[in-house]
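TICKET: design request
STATUS: open
ATTACHED STRUCTURE:
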């Protein structure tokens, strides 16, 4: 694995960006189109937060959470995410686990514990990886680096639609506030803060649909592939 990474250019498309920017959907679609594996790195942070909750370990306890992260009994099988052989695909997506993930993701020891686990997703087949620090820390030699973003309003609307909620009113305002809070937490942490690396292609999807966003990334990919 290390040799794949330390080579001049790793066969990785790194897609970073803020909460609800559409990274997951877009990254998964590109992985399918290019016949590559897909890494949802946020799921590992979410799994760690859920595992801590189940183990009654407080999200402020860096040492114990790092230990849990290093022994995370998680499996990704046929679109399902398992923790201790239990299907937690839906459970890890709730907003409180998202907040917990954001909290524990600020601990250097937790990030270190998950680093090799993320790198192990890369095989000869190649990878599309989405997260916050794919381009900066986990796969610094990625062949293509994308920073995917959209305005907080647009992201909140997408999240509301995803949850089947109205795109105005009190619940919508709460979603917007949560997204803005998570942006601040992810951008202001000391380790691996969310920000584009110098060589990243910035893609603002505020006025693009999924298909248009996928196409734009594939256009960039075709250029480097030549
Ligand atoms: O999809 P959404 O942005 O809501 O969240 P996610 O990608 O599942 O990630 C959940 C949380 O994990 C984020 O708020 C980040 O704080 C953290 N995370 C991280 O720090 N580094 C990553 N590579 C991926 C996620």
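STATUS: resolved
RESOLUTION: sequence designed for all positions
ATTACHED SEQUENCE:
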């Amino acid at each position: 694995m290390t040799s794949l990474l330390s080579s001049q250019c790793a066969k990785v498309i790194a897609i970073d960006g803020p909460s609800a920017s559409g990274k997951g959907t877009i990254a998964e679609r590109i992985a399918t189109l290019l016949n590559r594996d897909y890494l949802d790195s946020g799921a590992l942070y979410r799994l760690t937060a859920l595992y801590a909750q189940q183990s009654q370990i407080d999200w402020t306890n860096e040492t114990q959470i790092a230990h849990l992260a290093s022994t995370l009994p998680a499996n990704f099988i046929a679109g399902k995410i398992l923790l201790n052989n239990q299907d937690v695909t839906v459970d890890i997506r709730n907003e409180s686990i998202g907040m917990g993930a954001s909290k524990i993701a600020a601990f250097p020891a937790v990030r270190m514990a998950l680093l090799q686990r993320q790198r192990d997703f890369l095989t000869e087949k190649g990878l599309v990886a989405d997260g916050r620090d794919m381009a900066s820390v986990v796969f610094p030699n990625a062949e293509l680096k994308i920073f995917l973003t959209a305005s907080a309003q647009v992201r909140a609307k997408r999240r509301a639609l995803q949850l089947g909620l109205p795109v105005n009113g009190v619940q919508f305002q709460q979603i917007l506030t949560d997204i803005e809070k998570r942006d601040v937490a992810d951008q202001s942490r000391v380790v691996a803060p969310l920000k584009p690396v110098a060589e990243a292609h910035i893609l603002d999807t505020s006025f693009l649909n999924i298909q248009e966003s996928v196409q734009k990334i594939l256009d960039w990919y075709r250029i480097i592939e030549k």
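CLOSING REMARK: The chain has a mean pLDDT of 93. The chain has ten helices and eight strands.
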